[in-house]
């Protein structure tokens, strides 16, 4: 295990202390030693000179291209944008983290390339691209029957458990969302895009940091001072009620408002993604019910009325297992609770998903950025196995199961076919 560690130390060294020319020479030398170097000419040939027809998408890092090597392997190539300072940081962050990570549910970094001003990361190509391209498109989401969706939920959970507890260091992804989940030819989910990820100190339960990867829009010119303060004091967001973030649909409220980061931030994002997989609705653009401000709010209100299965995508009616769907809805609500100390850690989530639907604790109200959570008091006799905020040593808290809570299936209707509700139930979608 010493070799990857040494490799990472050497990889970081030239970017921090050497000149530009020395950076490239030393990085190429290290890459050759680690057998992770791809010649630029090889990648140019594989992508037809980075032709537009080979472009898969683009993010803060830069464009991503599909390519095919001479040995037949299909690859995805991330090409650093020359003008992106954020992309340069993401390049180093992703190279540093993924060089040490290997898991079935995490995208595999094959290597990298530095050629003049060009910097590229090379990944395995994942056949079905990203989850959002199937889940939120009416003409494709039928490809995701209930079994596939359930397997995707379980796979993402295992990938996050690995990152949080079983990798070399605790890694907080910070950007879990549908567009960062790739599906291979066997529909195995793979967590991707580690440009925003962060190594977590082993001796801390949380850290305070600026919110990563967000772009804010000021609605009131009088609030511009808060943008300036945000660069120096993340806690100023507690007084900033007019910001919108492009990723706010997945981001934990304590992270958005206060820069308070722990593994529970990833848990919150996972919970949002679970509910999106059940409903095929985006939390960030939800508008199906006038009395619900987002997907989480709508789900929680239906859950409290014993009608949680009504959020289910109608296309799942023929394949859904009612008890499993209800359990996933309840897990999604548990993961998105406003109080991060009540959210289960990923080990607990994996345990819940690996068992037959049974008794789970009752979720409290979901968290919403802009609101302050209160430490919820559970009714007498109810004990939570959710664990403590950001605790990395979760094994003891998850070793016992909770038997004094309400059944997931009891909170849902017995039929898996949702009906129409004239008071605001969403219509059947084609």
From TrEMBL:
Compositionally skewed regions (Low complexity) per UniProt: 386-415
EC number: 2.7.11.1
Protein's UniProt keywords contain Methyltransferase: no
One Gene Ontology MF term: ATP binding
Region (Disordered): 354-430
Assigned keywords, A-Z: ATP-binding, Kinase, Nucleotide-binding, Receptor, Serine/threonine-protein kinase, Transferase
Keyword ATP-binding among UniProt keywords: yes
PROSITE patterns listed in its UniProt record: PROTEIN_KINASE_DOM, PROTEIN_KINASE_ST
Catalytic reaction equation(s): L-threonyl-[protein] + ATP = O-phospho-L-threonyl-[protein] + ADP + H(+); L-seryl-[protein] + ATP = O-phospho-L-seryl-[protein] + ADP + H(+)
PANTHER family registered for this protein in UniProt: CYSTEINE-RICH RECEPTOR-LIKE PROTEIN KINASE 3
This protein's name: non-specific serine/threonine protein kinase
Organism, as annotated: Morella rubra
UniProt lineage: Eukaryota, Viridiplantae, Streptophyta, Embryophyta, Tracheophyta
């Amino acid at each position: 295990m010493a070799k990857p560690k040494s490799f990472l130390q050497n990889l970081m060294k030239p970017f921090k202390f050497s000149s530009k020319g020395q950076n490239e020479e030393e990085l190429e030398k290290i890459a050759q030693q680690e057998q992770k170097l791809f010649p630029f000419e090889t990648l140019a040939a594989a992508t037809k000179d980075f032709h537009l027809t080979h472009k898969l998408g683009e993010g803060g890092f830069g464009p991503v291209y599909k390519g095919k090597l001479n040995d037949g392997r299909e690859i995805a190539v991330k090409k650093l944008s020359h003008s992106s300072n954020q992309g340069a940081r993401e390049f180093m962050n992703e190279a540093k983290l993924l060089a040490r990570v290997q898991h079935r549910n995490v995208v595999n970094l094959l290597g990298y390339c530095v050629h003049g001003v060009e910097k590229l990361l090379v990944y395995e190509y994942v056949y079905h691209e990203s989850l959002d391209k199937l889940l939120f498109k009416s003409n494709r989401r039928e490809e995701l029957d209930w079994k596939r969706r359930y397997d995707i939920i379980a796979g993402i959970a295992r990938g996050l458990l690995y990152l949080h507890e079983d990798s070399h260091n605790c890694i907080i992804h910070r950007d879990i969302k549908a567009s960062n989940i790739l599906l291979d030819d066997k529909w195995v989910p793979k967590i991707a895009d580690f440009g925003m990820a962060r190594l977590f100190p082993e001796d801390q339960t949380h850290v305070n940091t600026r919110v990563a990867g967000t772009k804010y829009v000021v609605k009131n010119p009088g609030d511009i001072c808060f943008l300036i303060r945000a660069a120096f004091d993340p806690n100023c967001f507690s007084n900033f009620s007019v910001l919108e973030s492009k990723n706010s649909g997945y981001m934990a409220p304590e992270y958005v408002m206060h820069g308070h980061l722990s593994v529970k931030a990833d848990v919150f994002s996972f919970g949002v993604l679970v509910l999106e997989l059940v409903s095929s609705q985006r939390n960030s653009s939800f508008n199906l019910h006038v009395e619900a401000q987002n997907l989480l709010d709508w789900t929680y209100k239906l859950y409290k009325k014993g009608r949680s299965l009504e959020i289910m995508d109608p296309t799942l009616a023929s394949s859904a297992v009612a008890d499993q769907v209800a359990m996933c809805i309840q897990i999604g609500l548990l993961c998105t609770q406003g109080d991060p100390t009540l959210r289960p850690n990923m080990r607990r989530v994996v345990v819940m998903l690996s068992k037959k639907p049974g008794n789970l604790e009752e979720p409290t109200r979901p968290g919403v950025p802009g609101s302050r959570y209160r430490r919820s008091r559970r009714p007498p006799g109810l004990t939570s196995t959710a664990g403590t905020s950001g605790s990395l040593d979760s094994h003891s808290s998850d070793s016992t199961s909770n038997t004094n809570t309400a059944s997931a299936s009891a909170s849902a209707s017995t039929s898996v076919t949702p009906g129409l509700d004239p008071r605001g139930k969403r219509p059947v979608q084609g």
